């Protein structure tokens, strides 16, 4: 289906891709043999052995949803510790997998500045300043009735992460916001413009470099700008 649709790769995501672990291994091997990339959007709560198997099967990139601090993991996720998630992130980096972090900012749960600063500091310290961090907007659904995240809160999270040394920080679920875009970490030049899930412009020079200052941009793969396909 991916090949028929003209896609560049596979992404295993909702609800949790580890529930499709064996299927992922099979699909990734086939996809790699056809020249497609393979990605996971996961909670990161896996063993090092599982991660190694995914890497061997063809996993290229891993985006992990870090839910919050230890209190959030214990109260809302029923997990005794958040450490397995950070172990996965560090090991993925060591294995050469492209790693990105996403934090769904939920009103009244993990929307305070102390948490934003704690997350950014740990990412910069343990994964490196070029590791992308996405702060995404929450909307009420099912049993969670708190109001949607205020955009100003997300913008504050962005500024805090930049203050802590993160070079690639994004806001999600806010279509049209300037922080959906990718800017050069050296000179601030606009490199990739986005709206929602659509990439509308790519200005990367050969070798994934900034066309203005020549800095190497830590992007895996190639830019492919496609016309919007309406469902």
Core attributes:
about 230 residues; 6-stranded parallel beta sheet; 3-stranded antiparallel beta sheet; 9 strands
How many individual β-strands? 9
Q: Name the average pLDDT.
A: 95
Spans with pLDDT under 50 lasting ≥5 residues? none
Helical amount among residues, as a percent range?
A: 25-40%
| Beta-strand percentage range | 15-25%
The sequence of SSEs as H and E is HEHEHEHHEHEHEEEE
What oligomeric state is this?
single chain
Helix/strand/pairing class, anyone?
Answer: alpha/beta
Overall body shape: globular
Helix count equals 7
Describe the structure.
There is one protein chain. With 231 residues, this protein is of the alpha/beta class. 32% of the residues lie in helices and 19% in strands. It contains 7 helices and 9 strands; from the N terminus they run αβαβαβααβαβαββββ. It has helices at residues 2-5, 21-33, 48-57, 70-76, 83-94, 113-126, 151-163; strands at residues 9-12, 37-42, 61-65, 98-105, 133-137, 169-172, 182-183, 190-195, 198-202. The strands form 2 sheets. A 6-stranded parallel β-sheet has the order 1-2-3-4-5-6. Strands 7-8-9 form a 3-stranded antiparallel β-sheet, with no helix packed on it. Helix 6 runs parallel beside helix 7. It starts with a helix and ends in a 29-residue tail after the last strand.
């Amino acid at each position: 289906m991916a090949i028929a649709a003209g896609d560049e790769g596979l992404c295993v995501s909702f609800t949790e891709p580890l529930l499709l672990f064996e299927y992922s291994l099979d699909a990734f091997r086939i996809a790699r043999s056809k020249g497609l990339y393979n990605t996971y959007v996961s909670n990161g709560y896996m063993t090092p052995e599982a991660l190694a198997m995914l890497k061997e099967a063809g996993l290229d990139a891993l985006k992990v949803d870090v839910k919050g601090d230890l209190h959030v993991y214990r109260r809302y996720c029923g997990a005794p510790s958040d450490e397995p998630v950070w172990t996965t992130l560090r090991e993925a980096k060591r294995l050469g997998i492209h790693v990105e972090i996403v934090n769904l900012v939920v009103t009244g749960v993990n929307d305070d500045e102390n948490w934003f600063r704690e997350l950014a500091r740990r990412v910069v310290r343990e994964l490196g300043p070029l590791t992308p961090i996405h702060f995404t907007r929450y909307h009420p659904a099912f049993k969670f009735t708190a109001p949607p995240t205020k955009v100003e809160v997300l913008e504050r999270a962005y500024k805090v992460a930049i203050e802590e040394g993160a070079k690639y920080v994004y806001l999600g679920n806010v279509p049209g916001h300037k922080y959906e875009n990718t800017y050069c970490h050296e000179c601030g030049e606009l490199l990739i413009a986005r709206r929602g899930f659509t990439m509308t412009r790519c200005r990367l020079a050969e070798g994934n470099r900034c066309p203005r200052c020549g800095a190497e941009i830590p992007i895996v793969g190639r830019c492919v700008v496609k016309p919007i396909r309406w469902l």
